[in-house]
Specification:
It is built from 16 helices and 15 strands. The protein is α/β, with parallel strands linked by helices. The chain has three domains: about 170 residues, Rossmann fold; about 170 residues, no CATH class; about 80 residues, Type Iii Antifreeze Protein Isoform Hplc 12 (Alpha-Beta Complex), CATH 3.90.1210.10. Helix 12 links the parallel strand 8 and strand 9. The longest helix is centred in the N-terminal third of the chain and has 18 residues.
Length: about 450
């Protein structure tokens, strides 16, 4: 991609890409661990409401003492790095790229808007914000002449890259997806029983280092739905209204599983997204499973291509009409700079919403009564189900990102999706609610398969 050569040119010219990082959690820390080894990049400032956490992140990755500055202006002048507690300082500074890594969808939307309004490219690590209002954010960024991008290293951007590879190579995309551990009872998982469904030691789970709500979201289907909504919207793919199938299978079976049901697979149609389970329905780990990987399934465009599928060890389906390209790992924040460099040097995203094709809606984990308070992603009351954006808007479904600390007006049965009319909406959500309404107005037409 020649990105390294372009970065070296910026380094040699003394005009590095100036980066502001918001959120010094795991993803941000992983990026910081790489940043000083990358030419043409200057991390100017790290914004985190917990300044001590940000200091700890820099210490953890071996940031030298002489690389600290007292404020942003000093950091810009000396090519050092400062820490601030207020992210608004980044938007009024000479920074080129903002990395939003707070993990909070409402805050993430507000930060993205501020970046766009001040002429800065925005890399959206907080995929929850992208699933909630990414299509509207991307539209605003385009109008402002800046890049809004998914974060390379996270699975959605890597899946989008595979889809782009497939289409640029002349293939029709049948399915784009990833692997994850899933069992049938996971949709009803709560923070009270989450550790029964992970492989962590009791010493670790008792230590308080792990967030039970976050890890509930990782397993109850919500996080997978959010990530695949980001993929569907970026790649113009249409999800099934039945949600993700989480069909068990190994990497050699990807093309056999992720093909239409009419020819023996599990998909409702071509041009969609799905997730494969890395364990059987009995909970046994599948050898050579897809747990950490991402994939795209393509269809042969003619008999000659089908013959190629058969001749090479690409593990096509039994009909030789479908084959998959698979990437086994994602390096999370360690490879984030691919997004930063593409935005700043080429003016292109590593995946961005092409329209509103998919949504993640709040779905009851148990029978809920009027007066119950929803506790959102990874909580006790709802999980996030992937559906088409058209179905979501037509039925007035409530996105899971808006299901935090809201009271039910009506009872909702277990397995049913919550509607806007079922809750008391907090109008103080302001810009996030405005951007969500803009997104709903962008419901896309037929998917690009």
């Amino acid at each position: 991609m020649n990105l390294h050569a372009l970065l070296r040119q910026r380094e040699d010219a003394g005009t590095p890409i100036r980066v502001g990082l918001i959120g010094a959690g795991r993803f941000g820390t992983m990026y910081l661990a790489q940043a000083r080894n990358i030419p043409g990049v200057h991390v100017v400032a790290i914004a985190d409401i917990n300044v001590d956490r940000a200091k700890g992140a820099l210490s953890l990755v071996g940031w030298p003492d002489e690389a600290y500055a007292d404020n942003i202006q000093a950091a810009l002048a000396d090519r050092t790095t400062t820490i601030v507690s207020d992210a608004t300082e980044l938007f009024s500074s000479d920074i080129d790229v903002i990395v939003e890594a707070t993990g909070n969808p409402i805050v993430g939307i507000n930060h993205a808007l501020a970046a766009i309004e001040t002429g800065k490219h925005i890399i959206m690590v907080t995929v929850e914000a992208d699933a909630l209002a990414g299509p509207a954010l991307a539209k605003r960024a385009e109008a402002a002449g800046v890049v809004y991008s998914l974060a390379y290293g996270d699975q959605p951007a890597l899946i989008w890259e595979l889809v782009d590879w497939a289409r640029a190579s002349g293939f029709d995309v049948v399915c784009a997806g990833k692997g994850a551990k899933y069992l049938s009872h996971y949709h009803e998982m709560t923070p009270d029983n989450v550790w029964e469904n992970w492989e962590f030691s009791k010493e670790l789970t008792d230590s308080g280092q792990l967030n039970p709500y976050m890890h509930t979201s990782f397993r109850d289907g919500t996080k997978a739905s959010i990530e695949m909504a980001a993929v569907a919207n970026a790649a113009a793919l249409l999800p099934s209204d039945g949600g993700l199938t989480f069909t068990p299978g190994n990497l050699e079976e990807i093309a056999t599983v992720c093909r239409p049901s009419a020819v023996g697979g599990v998909l409702d149609h071509e041009g969609t997204v799905d997730v494969m389970s890395s364990v059987t329905r009995d909970g046994e780990w599948i050898p050579h499973n897809t747990q950490e990987g991402v994939f795209v399934v393509v269809k042969a465009t003619n008999d000659y291509v089908a013959g190629c599928f058969d001749e090479y060890p690409w593990h096509p389906d039994p009909t030789k009409q479908y084959a998959a390209l698979y990437r086994p790992y994602h390096y999370v924040g360690l490879e984030l700079n691919i997004s930063i460099a593409n935005a700043a040097l080429r003016g292109v995203p590593t995946g961005a919403p092409a329209g509103f094709y998919a949504d993640v809606v709040a779905t009851a984990k148990k029978d809920l009564a009027a007066g119950d308070v929803l506790d959102g992603e990874g909580g006790f009351t709802v999980w996030g189900k992937l559906v088409s954006a058209q179905t979501s808007v037509q039925n007035g479904y409530l996105p899971v990102a808006m299901a935090h600390h809201v009271t039910l007006n009506n009872a909702v049965a277990r397995g049913e999706s919550v509607r806007w009319e079922d809750v008391q909406i907090d109008e103080s959500l302001g810009k996030a609610l405005e951007l969500r309404r803009e997104t709903e107005a962008l419901v896309a037409g037929p998917a690009l398969v």
